[in-house]
Amino acid sequence: MKKKKSVAKKNKQNPKETSVNLFLNLIIFALVAIIIFMSYSLFLKFSDRFGFNGKQGKKQVASEIIQLEVLNGCGVSGVADRFTDFLREHKFDVVNVGNYVSFNVDETLVIDRIGNMANAKKVAEELGVPRTNVIQQLNDNYFLDVSVIIGKDYYKLKPIKGEE
Known about the structure:
Layout lengths: L1 H10 L3 H35 L17 E6 L6 H11 L3 E7 L9 E4 L4 H11 L6 E3 L9 E5 L7 H4 L3
Parallel strand pairs: 1-2, 1-5, 3-4
Antiparallel strand pairs: 3-5
Protein backbone atom coordinates (compact mmCIF):
# COMPACT_ATOMS: atom_id res chain seq x y z
CA MET A 1 0.00 0.00 0.00
CA LYS A 2 2.87 2.33 0.64
CA LYS A 3 4.17 1.85 -2.91
CA LYS A 4 0.87 2.82 -4.54
CA LYS A 5 0.74 6.06 -2.62
CA SER A 6 4.26 7.10 -3.62
CA VAL A 7 3.67 6.25 -7.33
CA ALA A 8 0.48 8.29 -7.35
CA LYS A 9 2.30 11.19 -5.73
CA LYS A 10 5.04 11.12 -8.41
CA ASN A 11 2.55 11.20 -11.34
CA LYS A 12 0.55 14.07 -9.90
CA GLN A 13 2.00 17.45 -10.93
CA ASN A 14 1.71 20.76 -9.28
CA PRO A 15 -0.80 23.08 -11.09
CA LYS A 16 1.83 25.84 -11.06
CA GLU A 17 4.31 23.59 -12.91
CA THR A 18 1.63 22.68 -15.48
CA SER A 19 0.88 26.31 -16.28
CA VAL A 20 4.61 27.10 -16.55
CA ASN A 21 5.09 24.16 -18.95
CA LEU A 22 2.12 25.30 -21.04
CA PHE A 23 3.50 28.86 -21.16
CA LEU A 24 6.95 27.62 -22.22
CA ASN A 25 5.41 25.42 -24.94
CA LEU A 26 3.46 28.42 -26.28
CA ILE A 27 6.65 30.51 -26.37
CA ILE A 28 8.50 27.75 -28.22
CA PHE A 29 5.65 27.48 -30.74
CA ALA A 30 5.64 31.26 -31.29
CA LEU A 31 9.42 31.35 -31.79
CA VAL A 32 9.28 28.50 -34.30
CA ALA A 33 6.52 30.33 -36.20
CA ILE A 34 8.62 33.53 -36.27
CA ILE A 35 11.68 31.62 -37.53
CA ILE A 36 9.63 30.00 -40.32
CA PHE A 37 8.15 33.37 -41.32
CA MET A 38 11.58 35.06 -41.38
CA SER A 39 13.09 32.20 -43.39
CA TYR A 40 10.30 32.45 -45.95
CA SER A 41 10.74 36.24 -46.18
CA LEU A 42 14.48 35.84 -46.76
CA PHE A 43 13.82 33.23 -49.42
CA LEU A 44 11.45 35.60 -51.26
CA LYS A 45 13.89 38.50 -51.02
CA PHE A 46 16.83 36.51 -52.38
CA SER A 47 14.76 34.76 -55.02
CA ASP A 48 13.77 38.19 -56.42
CA ARG A 49 17.32 39.49 -56.27
CA PHE A 50 18.94 36.52 -57.99
CA GLY A 51 16.15 35.80 -60.47
CA PHE A 52 14.85 32.52 -59.03
CA ASN A 53 11.25 33.71 -59.28
CA GLY A 54 10.87 33.03 -63.00
CA LYS A 55 10.44 36.67 -64.02
CA GLN A 56 13.80 36.73 -65.84
CA GLY A 57 12.55 34.62 -68.72
CA LYS A 58 9.38 36.66 -69.30
CA LYS A 59 9.56 39.46 -71.80
CA GLN A 60 8.49 42.81 -70.45
CA VAL A 61 5.75 44.66 -72.30
CA ALA A 62 5.36 48.43 -72.40
CA SER A 63 2.36 49.84 -70.57
CA GLU A 64 -0.52 51.32 -72.50
CA ILE A 65 -0.20 54.58 -70.54
CA ILE A 66 3.34 55.64 -69.68
CA GLN A 67 3.69 58.46 -67.15
CA LEU A 68 6.94 60.37 -67.41
CA GLU A 69 8.78 63.52 -66.51
CA VAL A 70 10.87 65.68 -68.83
CA LEU A 71 13.85 67.46 -67.29
CA ASN A 72 16.06 70.01 -69.01
CA GLY A 73 19.69 69.01 -68.52
CA CYS A 74 21.19 71.11 -71.33
CA GLY A 75 20.23 74.63 -70.21
CA VAL A 76 18.56 75.65 -73.48
CA SER A 77 15.36 77.56 -72.74
CA GLY A 78 12.13 75.97 -73.96
CA VAL A 79 13.60 72.61 -74.98
CA ALA A 80 11.73 70.72 -72.24
CA ASP A 81 8.44 72.26 -73.40
CA ARG A 82 9.16 71.21 -77.00
CA PHE A 83 9.88 67.63 -75.89
CA THR A 84 6.74 67.64 -73.72
CA ASP A 85 4.55 68.75 -76.62
CA PHE A 86 6.10 66.09 -78.85
CA LEU A 87 5.56 63.32 -76.30
CA ARG A 88 1.98 64.35 -75.58
CA GLU A 89 1.23 64.33 -79.32
CA HIS A 90 2.48 60.74 -79.34
CA LYS A 91 0.12 59.72 -76.50
CA PHE A 92 2.56 59.79 -73.57
CA ASP A 93 1.38 61.18 -70.23
CA VAL A 94 3.91 63.85 -69.23
CA VAL A 95 3.19 64.60 -65.56
CA ASN A 96 6.19 66.78 -64.70
CA VAL A 97 8.34 69.27 -66.62
CA GLY A 98 11.30 71.08 -65.09
CA ASN A 99 15.02 71.55 -64.87
CA TYR A 100 17.50 68.84 -63.98
CA VAL A 101 19.93 69.47 -61.10
CA SER A 102 22.65 70.33 -63.62
CA PHE A 103 22.82 71.77 -67.13
CA ASN A 104 25.96 69.77 -67.99
CA VAL A 105 24.30 66.62 -69.36
CA ASP A 106 26.01 65.76 -72.67
CA GLU A 107 23.67 63.03 -73.93
CA THR A 108 19.94 62.65 -73.44
CA LEU A 109 19.05 59.90 -70.97
CA VAL A 110 15.85 57.89 -70.60
CA ILE A 111 15.58 56.39 -67.11
CA ASP A 112 13.29 53.53 -66.09
CA ARG A 113 11.96 54.19 -62.57
CA ILE A 114 9.68 51.19 -61.92
CA GLY A 115 11.53 48.14 -63.26
CA ASN A 116 9.87 47.88 -66.67
CA MET A 117 12.57 48.70 -69.19
CA ALA A 118 10.07 48.23 -72.04
CA ASN A 119 8.47 51.56 -71.06
CA ALA A 120 11.79 53.40 -71.16
CA LYS A 121 12.76 51.77 -74.47
CA LYS A 122 9.45 52.79 -76.01
CA VAL A 123 9.99 56.42 -74.97
CA ALA A 124 13.60 56.35 -76.19
CA GLU A 125 12.56 54.93 -79.55
CA GLU A 126 9.90 57.62 -79.96
CA LEU A 127 12.44 60.36 -79.19
CA GLY A 128 15.27 58.84 -81.24
CA VAL A 129 17.48 58.29 -78.19
CA PRO A 130 20.00 55.41 -78.62
CA ARG A 131 19.32 52.31 -76.53
CA THR A 132 22.72 52.73 -74.88
CA ASN A 133 21.30 55.83 -73.17
CA VAL A 134 18.39 53.93 -71.62
CA ILE A 135 19.20 53.09 -68.02
CA GLN A 136 17.40 51.84 -64.94
CA GLN A 137 17.33 53.63 -61.59
CA LEU A 138 14.55 52.21 -59.46
CA ASN A 139 13.11 54.60 -56.94
CA ASP A 140 10.03 53.94 -54.79
CA ASN A 141 9.67 57.67 -54.10
CA TYR A 142 8.86 58.43 -57.75
CA PHE A 143 5.27 58.01 -58.84
CA LEU A 144 6.04 57.80 -62.53
CA ASP A 145 7.35 55.26 -65.01
CA VAL A 146 10.13 57.07 -66.87
CA SER A 147 12.33 60.16 -66.57
CA VAL A 148 13.75 61.90 -69.64
CA ILE A 149 16.79 64.09 -69.06
CA ILE A 150 17.48 66.21 -72.11
CA GLY A 151 21.15 66.54 -72.90
CA LYS A 152 23.21 68.80 -75.16
CA ASP A 153 22.52 66.40 -78.05
CA TYR A 154 18.84 67.49 -78.12
CA TYR A 155 19.13 68.90 -81.65
CA LYS A 156 19.78 65.37 -83.01
CA LEU A 157 16.51 64.00 -81.61
CA LYS A 158 13.10 63.77 -83.27
CA PRO A 159 11.29 66.56 -81.36
CA ILE A 160 13.76 69.14 -82.73
CA LYS A 161 15.04 67.51 -85.92
CA GLY A 162 11.62 66.29 -87.01
CA GLU A 163 10.42 62.74 -87.64
CA GLU A 164 12.14 60.78 -90.33
